[in-house]
Amino acid sequence: MEIWTGTTSLTIFPGMMKAASPMAAPGPTPAPGSSSNSSSATTTMGTDFGEIGALSAKSLDWGPGGPRDEKNRSQGALLYNQRYGKYDALFLAEDKPVVYMTFDEGYENGLTPAFLEILKEKGVTGLFFVTYDFANRQPELVRQIIAEGHVLGNHSWSHKNYSTLTPKEAAEDLMKLHDYIKETFGYEMKYFRFPSGNFNEQTLAVVQSMGYKSVFWSYAYKDWLTDEQPEAASSEEKLVKAVCPGNIYLLHAVSSTNAQIMGSFIDRVRDAGYQWGDPGEL
Question: Which of 46, 114, 148, 249 has the lowest tally of Cβ within 10 angstroms?
């Protein structure tokens, strides 16, 4: 396992990988009782995974980690953009004074409505990565996220470590949720976030072959333990201090601390000369 600190033919789908050729921030796992039944992942039918299977299956974790450059950007994110960009994987956005708000929604802790209210008040568009468990248990919240102009992202059906799955298993898990969201809410997702940041080259290629972009993050902190929430003032300082061109923030929507500091955090990032970008343009 690498942690950043310092060939049969393949049916090509739109956005498929170009020819030729970190300590992770674990999120909350889905609440118990998730169903394993859903529509079949029809997109994977007929796919030849031979070429993808020839890629590296070495497990990788994303943090980010390592030092920062003169613009306060994670050098790990810059390196991984360069190394894995050919798979449409994004760890840091463009070198512009624009940052992005993303949330991981493994399960609902009663706080998503508060986040949505703050985002509406502040005029910020968020990218919400949902699991099947969240979407199944909170359909009205999913509808609200969509109706209010936010972006819905795929955080997997099962919240499994994708580096432990075969390419076919990963494709089926991803497309299970894709099909469920499309059939239930009439919404077609295009962004994927690997559960806990665990991935390998095979699964990056799988996600790309399904027409998705893998969106990681440029900054996250330990906010997901609901019984061990970090202190508000110091957490806000960490978030503001981390601002840099193209920063993709990852926040967990189960965090009461995040709900408390969200409005001030948004304002202070703007005061520092940055805009909150539309994640639908990532």
Answer: 46
